[in-house]
Inverse folding.
């Protein structure tokens, strides 16, 4: 469960104050599939970063699973990111010198899991995302779709309760993009909360709940009853 | 993140940037190698000098005329400021002291040596039979003033002189002329080469009485005294000074220099020199440290996106800090070990090239070289590692 109360985030551009998020109130229940849409500068990525604990609001409260986490220490927030949140980025953000398997393994290493256990989990993930034949290839040797599959495998390897995807199909062609979306939606069907930030209306419309933003405010928040 | 994972991950990172890592390792290795080789050279020179001094005798005391406290040990003697000369009588007095094992009065001069239609100028030492054992000289043939021949006109030749004058026949038993006197060659010194300023292969030794007559003097240049044991050197020195004071009407007009004191002085000077040389070499380690800092700062800049990603997937600032710190430790450690091996190899080459120089790097130098390298590398990593740890995840991820 995600609950944002009166969240404000400002940036300073010269002597001008820009409200990236202006008094945002939002509640997302566990297992929801939410898309956040809006033009550039509307604050959707900032909202995703705050939900993902990569950024801190200037004011307001953020509760995750009924726990107030706005005031937690940097280490405690890192632990929550590691255990409860998985990120999928538009530009994949894979470490170029590591193989697909090593990239997927990174969050497990950070968690301090023993190597033998890590190996089993990574093998499972490689199999689940059909990456076993590419396990020892570096990102430069993979296609765009394979790279994003590696990134999704990495995001889910810790079995997080929330997946945050920032334009996950932005760098992929239509067909590969659709395949990636199916992978993410499968995770949602497994009970994971899925929050997607996108420019793409068609992609946004696939979510059960669609939030539209402009100038740091939520314009509309619609739940599709058909789902 | 566990320590093993930190070390393993950072090692993989070091190995994936091969050229960069090799250059840093090389810089560090050269610094450590310079410390090891230069200290080996300095310590080798120190040991060489100390060995040279040790080879002139054991528990040796040198008595010379002149007051050390008024005009300096050597200066006074050289400038002839001695109120009273040392004589054979003084030498005999010293020989009776309980701390003294043996003594050898000494006169030094130059004279013309001629034999077998050959002629040359030689350095002449006038002394007694005890000079040979006191000065650790060895006779290759014959003897010098053996029992029953103490007052005979005999001469010992340095090996080079013997070979020059008697290349085809045995020198012992031959007759030579030194100055205006004739001598019977009773022995030939074994080859010892250069020692303490003169070449023992090119000297001749005659009895002290003949030397004093030849140089028309009753005074002595030095009296060499050997104490009974190392622990008795200081008491022997005091006893010698007291004895000479008594025989010289209460005047403190002689100086006693102990071999130990000279050795200690040289040891201190050369040790300081070794330290200074090692210090200069250590500067190259600092330069290597600055190189590490520079390259690591560039690496942080190049890997900003990776750092942002690590934070996004749950790395703490401490994890990032440790990863960069461990990279610096790897680079420094490998560089230091390689440098140590290079230094040892350099020392070996020195020993092979100059066999008389015991160029072994002392243990402290190797330990200090490696430690300074590690400390430098670690210090150099603090700034880049802190910079990496402080990076804002959102900004780092958005860097193209």
């Amino acid at each position: 469960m995600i609950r944002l109360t009166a969240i404000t985030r400002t940036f300073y551009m010269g002597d001008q104050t820009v409200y990236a998020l202006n008094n945002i109130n939002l509640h997302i229940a566990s297992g929801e599939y939410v898309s956040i849409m809006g033009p550039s500068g509307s604050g959707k990525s900032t909202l995703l970063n705050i939900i993902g604990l990569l950024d801190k609001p200037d004011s307001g409260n953020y509760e995750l699973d009924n726990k107030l986490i706005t005031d937690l220490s940097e280490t405690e927030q890192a632990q929550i990111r590691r255990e409860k949140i998985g990120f999928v980025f538009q530009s994949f953000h894979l470490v170029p010198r590591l193989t697909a398997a090593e990239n997927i393994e990174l969050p497990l290493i950070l968690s301090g899991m023993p190597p033998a256990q890590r190996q089993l989990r990574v093998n499972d993930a490689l199999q689940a995302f059909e990456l076993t034949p590419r396990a020892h290839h570096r990102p430069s040797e993979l296609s765009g779709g394979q790279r994003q599959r590696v990134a999704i495998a990495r995001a889910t390897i810790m079995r997080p309760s929330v997946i945050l995807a920032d334009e996950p199909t932005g760098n992929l062609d239509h067909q590969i993009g659709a395949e990636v979306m199916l992978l993410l939606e499968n995770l949602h069907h497994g009970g994971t909360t899925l929050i997607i930030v996108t420019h793409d209306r068609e992609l946004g419309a696939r979510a059960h709940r669609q939030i539209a933003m402009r100038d740091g405010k939520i314009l509309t928040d619609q739940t599709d009853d058909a789902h | 993140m566990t320590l093993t994972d930190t070390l393993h991950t950072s090692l993989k990172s070091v190995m994936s940037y091969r050229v960069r890592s090799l250059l840093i390792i090389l810089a560090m290795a050269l610094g450590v190698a310079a410390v090891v080789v230069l200290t080996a050279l300095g310590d080798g020179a120190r040991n060489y000098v100390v060995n040279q001094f040790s080879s002139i005798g054991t528990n040796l005391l040198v008595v010379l005329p002149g007051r050390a406290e008024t005009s300096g040990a050597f200066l006074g003697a050289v400038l002839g400021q001695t109120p009273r000369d040392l004589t054979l009588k003084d030498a005999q007095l010293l020989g009776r002291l309980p701390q003294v094992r043996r003594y050898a009065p000494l006169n030094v001069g130059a004279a013309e040596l001629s034999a077998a239609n050959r002629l040359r100028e030689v350095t002449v030492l006038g002394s007694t039979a005890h000079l040979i054992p006191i000065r650790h000289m060895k006779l290759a043939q014959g003897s010098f003033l053996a029992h029953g021949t103490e007052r005979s006109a005999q001469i010992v030749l340095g090996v080079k002189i013997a070979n020059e004058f008697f290349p085809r026949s045995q020198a012992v038993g031959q007759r030579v002329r030194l100055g205006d006197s004739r001598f019977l060659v009773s022995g030939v010194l074994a080859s010892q080469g250069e020692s303490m300023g003169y070449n023992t292969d090119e000297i001749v030794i005659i009895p002290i009485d003949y030397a004093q007559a030849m140089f028309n003097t009753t005074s002595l240049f030095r009296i060499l005294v050997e104490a009974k044991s190392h622990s008795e050197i200081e008491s022997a020195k005091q006893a010698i000074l007291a004895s000479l004071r008594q025989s010289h009407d209460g005047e403190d007009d002689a100086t006693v220099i102990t071999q130990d004191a000279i050795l200690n002085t040289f040891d201190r000077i050369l040790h300081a020199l070794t330290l200074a040389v090692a210090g200069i070499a250590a500067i190259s380690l600092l330069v290597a440290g600055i190189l590490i800092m520079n390259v690591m700062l560039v690496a942080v800049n190049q890997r900003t996106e990776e750092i942002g990603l690590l934070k996004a997937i749950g790395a703490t600032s401490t994890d990032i800090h440790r990863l960069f710190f461990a990279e610096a430790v790897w680079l420094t450690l490998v560089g230091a070990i390689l440098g140590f091996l290079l230094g040892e190899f350099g020392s070996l080459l020195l020993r092979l090239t100059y066999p008389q120089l015991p160029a072994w790097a002392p243990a402290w130098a190797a330990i200090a070289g490696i430690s300074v390298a590690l400390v430098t590398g670690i210090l150099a990593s603090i700034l880049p590692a802190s910079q990496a740890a402080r990076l804002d995840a959102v900004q780092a991820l958005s860097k193209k």
Summary: Chain B touches chain A through 25 residues (CB under 8 Å). Residues 138 and 190 of chain B are 5 Å apart (CA to CA). Residues 3-53+264-398 of chain B form one domain.
